[in-house]
Write a sequence for this structure.
């Protein structure tokens, strides 16, 4: 290999021609590094052609001008480096020898294609010129050898492409002349134009060039070649190429290579053709050759849409030998590149040529199947298979999506209403409902509804649960609605500011259109799009391949994967997706349901401990049943239950709403008691008011001031544990105390709760295996983790609050406001600059929050070496955050049920890459 890489390093032009093989051994013998440096130097297309040539695959000979020349071209103010053209001509001489024709030879001309190709595939973004080398003289030589009609058609195609790409004339100007020619000849397709008509068309093309550019169409073939090479370099910086690179994060500085290659002719006769194929079906992954072709056609004809291409299977009937050879060759290519290939081919008079091979793009479904199949076939290892699927792609497989054709049709007829943030993926259809109570009632009656809100707050949850999906006009990706919806795998479009919602009128206006309650809409939470009317959706069933891939992930991952689940249903679903326990059960969600809220409010309104305990006693059996259900679903697996966390005002109605209700009641008779009740609530709201509730009376602080709340919860947990373990199931409760910042908070809370636990177990006559631990979500807790670990058997990082408090950003306020501007860029002396590269509430901030986590892990384990540590919170389902969790030595991550498969795969990939790093 050394010989070859040096030949790449010291040259600017690289020859590929079977007769002059420049490096020994086939494509499959190249190391990954060698392959990568070939691609750097020759671009993906050039490297592929060189490797295929070396492997003995039939490729028309040619040469590649390296990407470094493109960089020189731009560095020197868009001029070709001196002597470059001499080097090109020197290598071209070998191409001419290999083919047995010469460029510009009047009797038997060599024709060339001049092709672009960067390191990263940019399909169709740059330019290619075909049939170069034709002029008024060579066209006659070609006509004598291969037929007049063919030669003339090739010439007019060349003038058209050269005119467009090199001379920068509009495509439509030529198309118009072609159209006129066909009309006056009374034919449908260009293939039907007779030689005389083609001659006239060529004359009109040349006339157009003279008129518009002021030169005669270049007859000198060297001048043609030089112009084409420069034009390809220029096309590196055309608008669509720049746009594509921005979109895909491709470096603008790397430049394109230019490949100059002998033409082969798919348009020579009926035993010729051109096509594109994938070695496996790119949308399902099915292992059959998949693609399209056209007989008697060249280049872009297949994609141009003028003639309908035929499926590749037809080639087996039309040209069985070529089909068989195509099967053999593409199979060899897949084996050499260890992955699905997207292959361009041309057949000339029955002989097959490969013109390009690259890694085939594929859907999530195909990616999973292909990875598993390739591993089972022994082409790649299981580990490699695991790295072939992007974890977040798995989301697509877990959610319903709109059927592609129906969606396209809806777009065509203008049913797209607006686009907000893609807050929680999936497709949903339902009637518009604005009121959460109504959504709950309709949902209970089995109606499909979409809850549309200006913004959501925690007490909307009962309306979100039964809805098919949620739309909000305000709020970001981590707004309450988005977090809750993602947790439930429910489609959500948030922050769709174009919707002007009129709650009183029960309607919204957008783009001049009015939508009313009960109108049906469709939302796509994966794209943020909202549509009028119903679009049918498809519910994808999880394949055997999916389960196989994830079982391989489980074999290699070191991190445990738990789920955030507040209900038995969630816990059951998460277990089906492979969760190994509950990492976070938020008990407050159990307080939010319609029938419980009044009891919770009674508890909050109580003015003495006795009344408070009475209200709590009503809640106790309800909580016990919830816990029992979750324990049953998680038989044999740990369940972490967080004691009450949010500030109490979240369980009370909004003051404005209460005041309105009171005003409505006042004139009515017999409402004195109801009014008094509401006024008491109002007083309580005023009493509980805090200017910064996120940093106020919540978490463990609540439990210390009102111990009876926590006592009730712990009693409910242990009573449930006793009931379920007496059913013969294994219960492993872990009780988690939130928002600890000082060790005393944990110590005192724990002393009270240990007493209640002991009493409950004694009464029940059953001992339950349990643990006490805490969340680490206040920076001070992370910094004093060594002290805290003395009283905690486990830590769970609450990365949402930890991020909020580490940055000092209030999550509820920052999103959609200054945080969005930080992410988009702020004005710095007239230039727009990003303050934050990523939203730290979505992707764990390793530099700051992560540093605190490391301190906490080290501190905690210095006191208690076997301390179990996990993450709960949004980050637990995000691949880069999962990798970080593995790196700092956490035992598990916990995420919403629908994220569990993503987390299993991401954790496996993290293990694989850390092993690879260790091995280096
Ligand atoms: P892109 O990068 O846009 O795919 P290509 O360089 O692959 O551009 O060229 C586009 C098409 O031109 C090819 O798919 C093929 O059909 C045709 N083509 C390119 N080079 C040749 C050649 N040497 N002989 C015949 N056709 C060619
Ligand atoms: Mg191509
Ligand atoms: Mg928290």
């Amino acid at each position: 290999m050394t010989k070859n890489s040096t030949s790449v390093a010291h040259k600017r032009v690289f020859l590929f021609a079977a007769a002059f093989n420049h490096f020994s051994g086939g494509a499959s013998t190249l190391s990954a590094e060698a392959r990568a440096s070939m691609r750097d130097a020759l671009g993906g297309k050039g490297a592929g052609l060189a490797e295929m040539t070396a492997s003995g695959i039939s490729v028309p000979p040619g040469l590649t001008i390296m990407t470094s020349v493109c960089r020189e071209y731009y560095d020197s103010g868009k001029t070709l480096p001196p002597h470059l053209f001499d080097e090109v001509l020197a290598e071209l001489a070998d191409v001419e020898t290999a083919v047995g024709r010469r460029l510009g030879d009047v009797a038997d001309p060599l024709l060339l294609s001049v092709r672009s190709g960067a390191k990263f595939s940019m399909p169709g973004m740059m330019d290619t010129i075909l049939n170069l080398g034709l002029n008024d003289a060579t066209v006659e030589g070609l006509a004598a050898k291969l037929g007049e009609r063919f030669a003339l058609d090739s010439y007019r195609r060349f003038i058209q492409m050269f005119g467009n790409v090199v001379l920068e004339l509009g495509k439509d100007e030529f198309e118009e002349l072609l159209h006129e020619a066909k009309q006056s000849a009374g034919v449908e397709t260009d293939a039907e134009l007779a030689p005389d008509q083609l001659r006239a068309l060529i004359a009109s093309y040349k006339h157009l060039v003279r008129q518009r550019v002021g030169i005669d169409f270049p007859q000198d073939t060297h001048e043609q070649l030089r112009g084409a090479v420069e034009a390809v370099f220029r096309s590196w910086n055309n608008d669509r190429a720049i746009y594509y690179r921005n979109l895909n994060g491709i470096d603008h500085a790397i430049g394109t290579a230019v490949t100059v290659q002998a033409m082969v002719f798919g348009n020579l006769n009926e035993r010729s053709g051109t096509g594109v194929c994938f070695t496996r079906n790119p949308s399902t992954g099915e292992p059959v050759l998949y693609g399209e072709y056209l007989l008697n056609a060249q280049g872009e004809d297949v994609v141009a849409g003028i003639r309908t291409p035929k499926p590749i299977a037809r080639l087996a009937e039309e040209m069985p030998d070529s089909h068989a050879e195509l099967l053999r060759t593409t199979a060899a290519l897949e084996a050499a590149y260890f992955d699905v290939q997207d292959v361009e081919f041309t057949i000339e008079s029955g002989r097959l040529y490969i013109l390009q091979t690259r890694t085939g793009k594929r859907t999530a479904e195909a990616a999973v199947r292909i990875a598993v199949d390739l591993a089972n076939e022994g082409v790649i290892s299981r580990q490699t298979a695991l790295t072939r699927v992007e974890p977040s792609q798995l989301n697509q497989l877990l959610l319903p999506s709109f059927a592609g054709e129906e969606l396209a049709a809806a777009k065509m007829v203008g049913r797209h209403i607006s686009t907000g943030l893609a807050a929680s993926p999936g497709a949903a259809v339902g009637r518009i409902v604005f009121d959460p109570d109504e959504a709950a009632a309709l949902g209970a009656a089995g109606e499909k509804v979409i809850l549309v809100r200006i913004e959501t707050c925690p007490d909307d949850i009962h309306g979100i649960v039964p809805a098919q999906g949620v739309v909000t006009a305000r709020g970001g990706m981590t707004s309450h609605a988005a977090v809750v919806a993602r947790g439930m795998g429910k489609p959500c479009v948030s922050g769709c500011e174009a919707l002007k919602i009129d709650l009183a009128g029960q309607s919204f206006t957008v783009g001049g259109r009015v939508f009313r309650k009960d109108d049906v809409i469709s939302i796509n939470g994966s794209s943020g799009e909202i549509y009028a009317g119903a679009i049918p959706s498809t519910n994808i069933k999880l394949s055997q391949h999916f389960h196989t891939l994830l079982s391989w992930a489980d074999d290699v991952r070191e991190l445990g994967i738990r789920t955030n689940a507040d209900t038995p249903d969630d816990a059951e679903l998460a277990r089906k997706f492979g969760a190994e326990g509950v990492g976070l059960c938020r008990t407050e969600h159990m307080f939010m349901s319609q029938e419980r809220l009044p009891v919770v409010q009674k508890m909050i309104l109580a003015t003495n401990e006795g009344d408070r305990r009475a209200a709590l006693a009503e809640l106790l059996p309800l909580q016990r049943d919830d816990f029992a259900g979750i324990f049953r679903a998680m038989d044999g697996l740990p369940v972490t239950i967080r004691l009450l966390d949010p500030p109490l005002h979240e369980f009370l109605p909004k003051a404005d709403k209460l005041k309105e209700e009171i005003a409505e009641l006042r004139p009515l008779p017999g409402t004195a008691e109801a009014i008094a009740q509401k006024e008491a609530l109002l007083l309580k709201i005023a009493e509980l008011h805090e200017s910064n509730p996120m940093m106020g009376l919540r978490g463990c602080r609540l439990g210390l001031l009102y111990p009876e709340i926590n006592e009730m919860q712990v009693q409910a947990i242990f009573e449930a544990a006793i009931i379920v373990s007496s059913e013969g199931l294994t219960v492993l409760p872990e009780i988690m105390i939130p928002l600890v910042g000082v060790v005393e908070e944990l110590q005192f809370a724990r002393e009270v709760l240990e007493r209640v636990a002991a009493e409950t177990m004694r009464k029940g006559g059953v001992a339950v295996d349990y643990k006490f631990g805490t969340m680490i979500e206040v920076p001070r807790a992370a910094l004093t983790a060594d002290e805290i670990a003395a009283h905690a058997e486990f830590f769970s990082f609450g990365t949402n609050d930890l991020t909020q408090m580490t940055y000092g950003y209030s999550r509820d306020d920052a999103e959609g406001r200054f945080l969005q501007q930080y992410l988009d860029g702020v004005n710095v002396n007239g230039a727009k600059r990003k303050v934050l590269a990523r939203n730290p509430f979505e992707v764990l901030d390793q530099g700051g929050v992560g540093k605190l986590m490391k301190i906490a892990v080290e501190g905690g384990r210095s006191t208690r070496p076997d301390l179990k540590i996990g993450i709960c919170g949004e980050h637990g389902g995000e691949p880069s955050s999962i990798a970080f969790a593995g790196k700092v030595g956490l035992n598990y991550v916990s995420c919403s049920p629908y994220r569990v498969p993503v987390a299993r795969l991401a954790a496996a990939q993290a293990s694989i890459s850390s092993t690879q790093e260790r091995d280096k």
Summary: Residues 60, 113, 115-116, 123-124, 128, 130, 261, 263-264, 274, 299, 344, 346, 355-356 surround adenosine-5'-diphosphate (ligand 1) (CB under 6 Å). Residues 15 and 635 are 66 Å apart (CA to CA). The chain has a mean pLDDT of 91. The first helix runs from residue 2 to 9.
